[in-house]
Specification:
About 60% of the residues lie in helices and about 10% in strands. By secondary structure, the chain is an alpha/beta fold. It has two domains: about 300 residues, ABC transporter transmembrane region fold, CATH 1.20.1560.10; about 150 residues, Rossmann fold, CATH 3.40.50.300. It has a six-stranded mixed beta sheet with strand order 6-7-8-3-9-10, with helices on both faces. Strand 7, helix 18 and strand 8 form a beta-alpha-beta unit. Helix 7 runs antiparallel to helix 10 and helix 7 runs parallel beside helix 11.
Length: about 575
């Protein structure tokens, strides 16, 4: 587990060196009003031009030291912020890929997107600003006040009287700010979720003439975010005017007291000018501190959200191996029950086995738990009760990479990248061109791929929008077949295919992948009738298990599905 501060450890030397340079430049800046007062009160009355030039050169050296010190330190701070945020973003992205499905459901995808984008940006700003102003502003405030004591202790005490009030304002605003910016980031999550949903379903929204409705819904979310942002902004914006008011009241008192002291000969004009210069320095430093607290509040809220993800323990770790007696089966479910919570089971007492090289069809009504079986088989979730075995080994005892290598999968809501056909089928697995093209032939995709001039090098638009539904499904099946998997899972992957192409596709798979265990989930019986065994699900329970002929005779639910899809034909 890592915290945001641990990411700064590799840059300790760079940060220390940068702060040292920043400190030297800041202290050089603090001496300028003191030198100016000395020149006005002590040197100018003597009319010694040479001495004035010497002290003018000293002022110039101090000014250049302040300038270059700040520029160099700011550049170093920017590099530290950039490199640290890059590492945070990289680790956060890697962590999102290792989260279990239940953890992803808990955090939500839009929130993960928000944490990777706006939250890391807020952390970047905080790290950079803390290095640029975190040391400079306090030195200017404390050093400026200290210098005013050397100029005139009485006037310094008058100005110092406002410090307790400034402290109260800063503490109150900083406490409120973290809470408010956390609420703001949650509102950003909601907006990202809405935009993501609308952009994904833009065609459906337009087809159903729901643009006005979606605009209205977005406006509600946008208004809520504006409300959160306004509340946070107003609260954090209190610091500048209140600090200015307090400091200006203090300065007014200083000028009044200073005027009496000058008239009585207890203070000199140069001292008053130096005092007002220090006041300007202190005022600007206090304004900088208020900016620091605004950015620090944002950064702290975002850092907590990022750490929440980074600190999530890996849930689906391999457990000690458990052997199954039926090791001749490629897949075996033994009394498997599963629910996203302990009260509501999605699946209940599912028990079946598929032999190596065999085939299983899964059919049932929408919401009966078909895709959940695939999710459990791939160990996106762990079973609540029972056990799942692959090649005689408990699925929970497999290393994640070892388990995934066994599968070729086409999921129900799979996706295609905005890349070439070849790259989509290969999917960065290093598969050679011959295997890619043969997989496309088996998936009945080779003909339409070659019908385009670019062939396998033709680019797909985002989510494959420039291909038809059936073409996209065949490309996805080609991707699954290209690695010659031990177990092929096709989750409703032929719904957009006509019956002829669907039948040809099944024939190709059966002919060229005799050793591959096939699990096919479908809505229509014609897609699963070829399977050695068919599992019929009804409300998360097994309503029947057997061959097509056996189920026609013994399973009421299977016959009902057949009749609904074949218009009541004579069985």
């Amino acid at each position: 587990m890592r915290t945001i501060f641990s990411y700064l450890s590799p840059y300790k030397i760079r940060i220390t060196f940068g702060l040292l340079i920043k400190s030297i430049g800041t202290f050089s800046e603090l001496f300028l009003p003191m030198i100016m007062a000395y020149m006005i009160d002590e040197i100018a009355p003597t009319e010694n031009v040479t001495l004035l030039v010497v002290w003018g050169i000293i002022m110039l050296v101090c000014a250049l030291a302040a300038l270059f010190g700040n520029v160099i330190a700011n550049r170093m701070a920017s590099k530290v912020a950039r490199d640290t945020t890059e590492r945070i973003r990289k680790d956060l992205f890697a962590k999102t890929l290792s989260l279990s499905a239940s953890q992803t459901d808990d955090i939500t995808v839009p929130s993960l997107v928000s944490r990777l984008s706006s939250d890391t940006y807020n952390v970047h700003n905080s790290i950079g600003m803390m290095q640029r102003l975190g040391i400079r502003a306090p030195i200017l405030v404390i050093g400026g006040i200290a210098m005013t004591f050397t100029v005139d202790p009485i006037l310094a005490l008058v100005l110092l009287a406002v410090v307790p009030f400034l402290t109260i304002v800063v503490i109150w605003v900083s406490k409120k700010g973290i809470v408010l910016y956390t609420d703001l980031q949650r509102a950003v999550d909601v907006m990202v979720r809405k935009v993501r949903d609308d952009y994904t379903g833009i065609r459906v929204i337009k087809a159903l003439s729901k643009t006005e409705y979606e605009n209205a819904e977005f406006s509600k979310i946008n208004d809520n975010m504006v409300k959160c942002e306004t509340k946070a902004g107003v609260t954090m914006g209190i610091t500048n005017p209140v600090m200015n008011l307090l400091l200006n009241l203090g300065m007014t008192a200083v000028i009044i007291v200073g005027a009496y002291r000058v008239s009585s000969g207890k203070a000199m004009v140069g001292e008053i000018i130096a005092f007002t210069s220090y006041f300007t320095i202190i005022l600007n430093a206090v304004i900088s501190i208020s900016r620091i607290f605004v950015n620090l509040s944002k950064g702290s809220a975002s850092a907590k959200r990022i750490e929440y993800v980074l600190k999530r323990e890996e849930e689906l770790i391999p457990i000690p191996e458990k052997e199954s007696a039926a090791d001749d089966c490629a897949v075996r479910f033994e009394n498997v029950s599963f629910g996203y919570d302990a009260k509501n089971y999605i699946l209940k007492d599912i028990d079946f086995a598929v032999k190596k090289g065999g085939s299983l069809g899964i059919i049932g009504a929408t919401g009966s738990g078909k895709s959940t079986i695939v999710a459990l088989l791939l160990r996106f979730y762990d079973v609540t009760e029972g056990a799942i075995f692959i090649d005689g080994k408990d699925v929970r005892s497999y290393d994640r990479h070892e388990l995934c290598k066994k599968f070729g999968v086409v999921l129900q809501n799979d996706f295609l990248m905005a890349a070439s056909v070849r790259e989509n089928i290969d999917f960065e697995r290093g598969i050679d061109d011959e295997m890619i093209e043969s997989a496309a032939r088996f998936a009945k995709a080779d003909d339409f791929i070659r019908s385009f001039e670019e062939g396998y090098d033709r680019k797909l638009s985002a989510r494959g929008a420039n291909y038809s539904g059936g073409q996209k499904q065949r490309l996805l099946i080609a991707r699954a077949l290209a690695s010659r998997p031990s177990i092929l899972i096709l989750d409703d992957s032929s719904s957009a295919l006509d019956y002829k192409t669907d039948a040809q596709l099944r024939s190709e798979i059966l002919a060229h992948f005799p050793e591959t265990t096939i699990i096919m989930i479908a809505q229509r019986i014609s897609s699963v009738r070829f399977a050695d065994k068919i599992l019929v699900l009804d409300g998360g329970k097994a309503a029947g298990f057997g061959s097509d002929e056996e189920l026609m005779q013994n399973c009421e639910e299977y016959r009902r599905i057949y009749e609904s899809q074949h218009g009541g034909e004579d069985l």
